[in-house]
Amino acid sequence: MPLSPRYRAAPLHSTLGDEFFDRVQPADFPKHILRHRNQRAAATVGLDTLTDEEWIAFFGRFEPLPENFPEPLALRYHGHQFRTYNPDIGDGRGFLFAQLRDAEDGRLLDLATKGSGRTPWSRQGDGRLTLKGGLREILATEMLEALGVETSKSFSLIETGESLYRGDEPSPTRSAVLVRLSHSHIRIGTFQRLAFLDDQAAIAKLVDYCVAQYFPELADAPAESRAADFLARVTARVARLGARYMAAGFVHGVLNSDNINVTGESFDYGPWRFAPRYDPQFTAAYFDDSGLYAFGRQPGALGWNLTRLAETVLPLVGLQRSQAILGEFQPIIQREFQLALLDRFGLAPAAEAEAEAALAKGLLEFLGKTQAGFEQTFFDWRGGLASRERAARSPQAALYDAPEFGPLREALAAHETAPAANLDHAYFRRDTPCTMLIEEVEAIWTPIAAADDWSALDAKLVDIAAMREAYGQGAA
């Protein structure tokens, strides 16, 4: 079966050695019903020309891709889960299936699974994924991409014909296997496991691998500074991720150290939610009783996880340098948040450095005092004051006449509309934006569960595609 010439296998993770993974076999599912294939993502790795039958063979039965891993790899890692260290985790219902090069920029990308069967790290789990869980991951990744958050791509979802029992879903419920395309599955928890085992040679080996594959600009750095440079790059990437979460109104829900990878790309979505309004206490996970991963606490959670990473490479970096690198996290995330707001509002940077800080302050104060719709506010003022007429048509137009809007209006006036604001796009002729609140997710799932009606999902994906194109995050 010939593949596209853009397909470039790069099964590099196995070069780290058997101590980093376990070779496993996928589950033998009774059915394979293709529910979602991401053609845009497939095109980036030369797999868009597959027939549906070939697609199912690779991503439902997990026949090896040409010149790739002959067997899937369940990755080994530890992690802090809600601040409690757990040495008994790892890929318990997933595995690394293949690695490929991006056809455009050559980046190393992973195809990995969720719900593909039991592994040595499954503990008491069945290694499966509910169909609803797969649907939710599709919606999260598509929406985040449209909002400018670096995220894994939901590559494939195949319903597998089993009945699952879950405490947090009406059961029995339907099963599925998800494949995601992601820029690295090496987690902070991957390093934590090696530190737990006191394997300093393996930590140095993993740093070198990460530099070579994910930070090649550091390849020529002196060996004695490579780990410090690596830690600094990861810190900057994770800070950017946190800033983008906040600008998108997104709550991941489970920011454990095994859910943070070294490239700063968001992945592995469970109880996520988008905040309808600005509320720092808004939580996504029903089991997050203390609000540890609430919306407003996400930057702190990410900084805490980075400190755990710094501990693992401390012998290679040194205390003083580690503290200096971690000290940069807060300034970076503040600056990245300001830049993310410019992107979301479609504004050009102002000549005065204080203008971006004023924009952030004005926005948060306005949202906090008025409880205006989070996404509606960005939509109404895309392009700044050039969009007065659109804002005047908004369902919350009255809030823009209130005195609380004054500081934000002044901050918007200090910025010109960015050339890439794309205000002529049809998306901005609407009165309300595309959103992804929990009620909408449930409204999409209900007809699927009741009558196998996928039309609401199809319509939402079309809506998100229009949003993504309007915001310049990729072609629809």
Automatic annotation (TrEMBL):
Which residues participate in Mg(2+) binding?
259, 268
InterPro entries with a match to the protein in the record: SelO
Tell me which NCBIfam families the record gives: PRK00029.1
Q: Which family is this sequence assigned to?
A: Belongs to the SELO family.
- Per the UniProt record, the source organism is Methylosinus trichosporium (strain ATCC 35070 / NCIMB 11131 / UNIQEM 75 / OB3b)
Binding sites annotated in the UniProt record for ATP:
90, 92-93, 114, 126-127, 180, 187, 268
For this entry, the protein name equals Protein nucleotidyltransferase YdiU
Which keywords are on file for this protein? ATP-binding, Magnesium, Manganese, Metal-binding, Nucleotide-binding, Nucleotidyltransferase, Transferase
Required co-factor(s) are: Mg(2+); Mn(2+)
Q: What is its EC number?
A: 2.7.7.-, 2.7.7.108
